[in-house]
Amino acid sequence: MLVTDVLNAVSSWFVGQRALPIRIITVGKKRSPGVQLLVDEYMTKLKHYCSVEDVQVRSNPKNARRDVRAQVDDEDMAAMNLIRSDDWVVMLDEHGLTIGSEEMAELIGDAGDTGASRLSFCIGGPYGHGRQIRKRANISIRLSSLVLNHQIALLVLIEQLYR
After folding, report:
1. Residues whose CB is less than 8 angstroms from the CB of residue 41 and which lie 6 or more positions away in sequence, other chains included
2. Strand, coil or helix: what is 53?
3. For 162, which DSSP code?
4. Domains in the chain and their CATH numbers?
5. DSSP conformational letter for 20
6. I want to staple 27 with a disulfide (CB 3.0 to 4.6 A). Which of 58, 120, 125, 147 is the partner?
7. Three-class secondary structure of residue 111 per DSSP
């Protein structure tokens, strides 16, 4: 696909629709410098088309030593505190719907028609998402039939948002 094709596809998401601001919430440890470099590059590209925000929620492995459920609940609460009541929430989960690039573009376009004020993507930590995020999500998708760690999932997501 040529760069002009990509730019036309991104622009077409917003023709006749308002471009929703995007927030990407990622649970996990500090990113490696290489991953952060790629995230920064794609975020710069995406900001030409819409407002996009990258928010990291630190996982707490000390809780996991005592109780994995406690860690997931803490991460769940921290992520929920970043989501507004009028957000359209997309949960990335290994058991979610399998979608391709075209369906991702449709999902983004359709979210603009829901009356939502922002599109929030949630990437879970090492033990997945908690009950509140699962209940709050408007849709659950998976980016691959492979299980991806949160850093790789973030890169795949932002590349697809740019695509």
Report:
1. none
2. strand
3. H
4. 18-162 (3.40.1280.10)
5. -
6. 125
7. helix
